[in-house]
Structure to design on (258 residues):
């Protein structure tokens, strides 16, 4: 990060820790340029990554401050980040509210997901103020350390995508639950139903890394067999509308704020 220091408030949590570890492993930042804070004082980082209890001290020692605490914890947070850049990972907290509460010069909102853990997150990000090309590239590279990333044109994209990519494994996990539940109801032994659904959600998901999903649907529909009948049934029952309502309901919560 070219002699700049990053401080992660909540840097020992699920998202913060995974991001910090990826930044260190990739060489994006050196351990002496990374600071983390929490309230409990417990950390799994080595002694080179400084753990602070005082968030204001972290802000003062950092060029860029990342907020990786939960939205409800943000209400209790008291920092003066005047003159700093703040990258927030919080869902449902608008950039204007973060600026007002922290005094930050510039707020960037980013929405990674739990796949940061395996460095396969998709992270859309939005800058509420103008960024020079160098800083834009820096933010992009930072999030590419945990997967793929894209700058989005407006803040509403972040709220909508909080309910899409921000949910990470939630949609496939819900599909798994439905598949297992329905298979068991149809008389398949539970352990076998679970393995079968796991094969669909996890095995099938991995295969899609190598194939265009839309092309796969087209190919399987063309067989006009068992899979085509199942897919057609989902289409006839308007699966897109069900998914669309789920996304809108999630996005509405993000837009309303938490
Ligand atoms: N997890 C996801 O899949 C996901 C996806 C998209 C966005 N997000 C966003 O990412 C943020 C973090 O989520 P998470 O899942 O990583 O939560 P988490 O695991 O609960 O991590 C939050 C961390 O913040 C620390 N903390 C809380 N209050 C603090 C304070 N006042 N000062 C310093 N540290 C504090 C906590 O440690 P102590 O208890 O020790 O203080 C905890 O380790 C949330 O805002 C969420 O909306 C999460």
């Amino acid at each position: 990060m070219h002699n700049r220091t990053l401080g992660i408030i909540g840097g020992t949590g699920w998202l913060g820790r995974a991001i910090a570890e990826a930044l260190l492993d990739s060489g994006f930042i050196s351990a002496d340029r990374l600071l983390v804070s929490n309230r409990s004082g417990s950390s799994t980082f080595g002694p080179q990554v400084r753990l602070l209890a005082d968030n204001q001290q972290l802000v003062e020692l950092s060029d860029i401050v990342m907020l990786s605490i939960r939205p409800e914890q943000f209400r209790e947070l008291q920092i003066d980040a005047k003159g700093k850049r703040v990258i927030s990972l919080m869902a449902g907290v608008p950039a204007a509210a973060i600026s007002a509460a922290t005094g930050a010069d510039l707020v960037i909102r980013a929405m990674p997901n739990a796949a940061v853990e395996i460095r396969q997150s998709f992270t859309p990000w939005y800058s509420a103020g103008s960024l020079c090309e160098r800083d834009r590239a820096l933010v992009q590279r930072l999030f590419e350390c945990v997967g793929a990333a894209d700058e989005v044109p407006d803040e509403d994209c972040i709220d909508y995508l909080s309910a899409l990519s921000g949910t990470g494994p939630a949609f496939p996990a819900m599909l798994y639950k439905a598949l297992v539940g329905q298979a068991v109801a149809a008389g398949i032994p539970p352990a076998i139903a679970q393995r079968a659904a796991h094969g669909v959600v996890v095995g099938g998901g991995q295969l899609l890394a190598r194939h265009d999903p839309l092309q796969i649907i087209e190919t399987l529909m063309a067989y006009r067999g068992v899979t085509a009948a199942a897919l057609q049934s989902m289409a006839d029952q308007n699966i897109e509308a069900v998914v669309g309502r789920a996304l809108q309901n999630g996005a509405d919560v993000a837009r309303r704020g938490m």
In short: Residues 9-10, 12-16, 37-40, 55, 68-71, 73, 76-77, 89-91, 111-114, 166, 168 surround NAP (CB under 6 Å).
